[in-house]
Specification:
The complex is a heterodimer of chains A (about 375) and B (about 290).
Chain A (H helix, E strand, L loop, with lengths): L1 H25 L3 E7 L6 H20 L8 E7 L4 H13 L4 E4 L3 H14 L2 E4 L16 E3 L4 H15 L3 E7 L2 H16 L3 E8 L7 H10 L3 E4 L4 H13 L6 E3 L7 H5 L8 E4 L6 H14 L5 H20 L4 H9 L30 E6 L2 E8 L3
Parallel strand pairs in A: 1-2, 1-3, 3-4, 4-5, 6-7, 6-8, 8-9, 9-10
Antiparallel strand pairs in A: 10-11, 11-12
Helix pairs in contact in A: 2-11, 3-4, 11-12
Chain B lengths: L1 H31 L6 H18 L4 H29 L4 H23 L15 E3 L2 E3 L1 H23 L1 H11 L1 H6 L4 H27 L6 H15 L4 H21 L4 H4 L2 H12 L12
Antiparallel strand pairs in B: 1-2
Helix pairs in contact in B: 1-5, 1-6, 1-8, 1-9, 1-10, 2-3, 2-4, 2-8, 2-9, 3-4, 3-8, 5-6, 9-10, 9-12
Chain lengths: ~375, ~290
């Protein structure tokens, strides 16, 4: 009797222990907070980035996870609004995430940083490009992947120099980002010695851009810079461009890498060059593109690669840190160098040891749209 | 000269769309006194109907276009039946109907966004893109298509109001509701058909515009503003007012951008200045009301 009791007690104890161990392992993944945008202005950007993140997480988990634990993404949508972004960061920190990734807009990420800096939690943006993100606040816990805005414009101007475009036209739309980028284009172009001979705005909601492009045609520029981002304004711009028989090359911002434009105005953007961060001839990129195609059935543009690289570099840092302790992850991130991701021109590496904005200054490329898809690289680097 | 002729086609195209929206305002405004700001959203839904029928179901344009328009006519009819009629029955002020339709505007927009998503959607150009020349005029195939369709619509509208007994009934209700009812005009039928026809006309504007700009859940607001400006310029009295208002607005817009040397951002404000001038000095628009004669 006594023996039976002992035995059953031991059995129950053992089962309990097993159970506890089991739940500890299954219910204890490493949580990574993601501040994304599901409904706001940058939803179109954020969604493909999320896809890339999912891909990276699935890959890492299939290979056994990090430190023997699975990775899990916890999404919060900030609608691209700075105040909401800070609130969401607070919420994620409350849920004990190991780190936070921000993929909406730079102003939102900057606001969230005020929270993460205080909480001393590793915060990274795989996609935001504003230079101020790592400069305004001295927040050692914040890191930035992806080419900076200044790197992007320098890359495009290096291409401009090679092509020797001296007199250029500038077309923008009346959205915030569109006019901001227009200003950036203008100041940098004029600093580089080129002259903006005509500047035109295509209004959001306009049904055509004939009058604006007639003015451009009359000014006889060598090339047209396009800083717009709104799809409808972009659509009427390209329709007018073809209708008026313009032949000038069009140079665009990083935003042209959003694949939506090619869907909405098919066939009209061939020949356009834009700033990108992906070189499909690089082995890492080619491998990623094949994997993506298998998972989603289409050839990816650069956006999913931002999410993919972001998760991978963070996972590597957690592995190196050997724990989910924020200070250890930060230290591991800060010593990450010679890291080769999917993004970046051939031969370029991510290096956080010199700057918290780790993307190489010569890592961006200029790509051309060919056959209604993102085609070959026509220029790379800032030289 | 080449520039000017191209510009005229562009004015015709934009003016046609503004005129359609202005006409949609007018069709509801005349018999009921309601300024229906939801016409922009009706146009937006027309664009999405075109996405469903023409882009996704791949119906030929010639079938997809009238079907899309009928869908929006039906939506407008249900709206009239469900939210406006009860207010008319209870003798609510016109302002409460305007407000209820403003509420519907939000309903339309958010429903469309949740059904179709927040990204712009592609609608093909029925006759391809690129330059088309008709005599000395050059534009896109879509520009000439829009101008022709709108010309037919306005001819029909003019014929209806000026030459048919039904048109006279509409006018009668517009001029004096009470008297019209006493004359045996069925106010319900007039009210409902004004909603249906306004829905169809606004929907047409959206279907015609979608291939130019893509369909998007926020495309309604600029159209509603442009159409309203056209209506203020042209006057709320007659269909010709909507047409003339639309064309004048477009002409002013394009000429300012093309020939006046101010930063193009400021050029966008000129049409609104025109609206202010009209509201201050000629609030009835170019064409006076019939009862004013």
């Amino acid at each position: 009797m006594n023996n039976t009791l002992k035995f059953s007690r031991n059995l129950i104890l053992a089962m309990g222990l097993l159970l506890a161990a089991g739940t500890a392992q299954a219910a204890d993944p490493i949580k990574i907070g993601v501040i994304t945008d599901r409904v706001g202005n940058s939803a179109a950007w954020a969604k493909p980035i999320e896809q890339g993140m999912e891909m990276a997480v699935n890959e890492i988990n299939a290979a056994g996870g990090v430190l023997g634990r699975q990775l899990k993404l916890r999404y919060e949508s900030d609608q691209s609004k700075p105040d909401v972004s800070a609130t969401k960061a607070r919420k994620l920190i409350g849920e004990n995430v190991a780190a936070i990734l921000s993929i909406t807009t730079s102003p939102a990420t900057q606001q969230a940083q005020t929270v993460t800096a205080k909480a001393k939690i590793v915060h990274m943006t795989p996609a935001n490009s504003a230079d101020y993100l790592t400069k305004k606040l001295d927040n050692p816990y914040f890191f930035q992947m992806g080419p900076l805005g200044s790197t992007q414009i320098r890359t495009l101007l290096a291409y401009n120099k090679k092509k020797n475009f001296k007199r250029v036209a500038l077309v923008k739309d009346n959205s915030n980002l569109g006019s901001y980028l227009g200003k950036v284009f203008k100041t940098n172009l004029e600093k580089s010695g080129a002259k903006v001979v005509v500047e035109q705005t295509v209004e959001i909601g306009a049904t055509d851009a004939i009058a604006q492009l007639q003015k451009v045609r009359a000014a006889k520029p060598d090339a047209i810079y396009h800083s717009g981002i709104v799809v409808s304004s972009m659509a009427v711009f390209f329709k007018a461009y073809h209708q008026l028989g313009l032949k000038q090359p069009i140079l665009g911002s990083f935003n042209l890498s959003v694949p939506k434009y090619l869907e909405v105005i098919p066939g009209m953007m061939d020949g356009v060059v834009f700033i990108d961060a992906m070189d499909p001839s690089k082995p890492e990129a080619a491998k990623f593109m094949a994997k993506y195609k298998k998972a989603y059935g289409s050839v990816p543009f650069s956006l999913p690669a931002y999410g993919y690289d972001g998760v991978k570099v963070l996972a590597d840092a957690i592995k190196k840190a050997g724990s989910t302790d924020s200070d250890k992850i930060r230290a591991a991130m800060a010593t990450t160098k010679d890291w080769v991701g999917v993004l970046g021109a051939k031969g370029q590496v991510v290096d956080f040891s010199k700057s918290r904005a780790g993307f190489s200054v010569d890592g961006a490329v200029v790509r051309r749209i060919e056959n209604n898809t993102h085609g070959s690289i026509v220029h790379s680097g800032t030289k | 000269m080449e520039d000017f002729l191209e510009l005229i086609v562009s004015v015709g195209e934009a003016g046609s769309i503004y005129a359609l929206v202005a006409l949609a305002y007018l069709l509801v405004l005349r018999p009921s006194g309601i300024i229906n700001f939801a016409v922009g959203e009706w146009a937006m839904m027309g664009g999405f109907a075109a996405v469903s029928l023409i882009t996704w179901l791949k119906l030929p344009y010639i079938i997809g276009l009238p079907l899309s328009i009928m869908c929006i006519g039906a939506i407008a009819w249900v709206t009239g039946l469900v939210v406006v009629n009860p207010l008319i029955k209870r003798n609510a002020s016109p302002m409460s109907k305007v407000l209820v339709l403003l509420g519907m505007l939000i309903v339309y927009r958010e429903t469309s966004a949740s059904l179709y998503g927040y990204d712009p959607l592609f609608v093909p150009m029925p006759f391809g893109f690129g330059r088309v020349e008709v005599g000395p005029f050059a534009g896109s195939s879509q520009s000439f298509f829009i101008i022709s369709v709108v010309a037919v619509v306005f001819l029909l509208a003019w014929y209806f109001f000026e030459r048919t007994i039904w048109g006279k009934a509409f006018e009668g209700v517009a001029i004096n509701r009470q008297a019209a009812m006493l004359m045996g005009i069925n106010l319900k039928i007039v009210g409902m058909s004004s909603f249906i026809s306004a829905g169809m006309i606004a929907g047409l504007a959206g279907v015609l515009q979608a291939p130019l700009t893509s369909a998007h859940f926020l495309m309604g607001l600029p159209l509603a503003i442009k159409g309203f400006t056209a209506l203020v310029i042209g006057g709320v009295g007659r269909v010709e007012g909507a047409l003339l208002g639309g064309f004048l607005l477009a002409l002013l817009e394009k000429l300012t951008i093309r020939y006046i040397d101010i930063p193009s951002g400021y050029a966008l404000g000129v049409p609104l200045l025109l609206m202010i001038v009209f509201l201050l000095f000629r609030p009835n628009g170019i064409f006076q009301n019939k009862e004013a004669k």
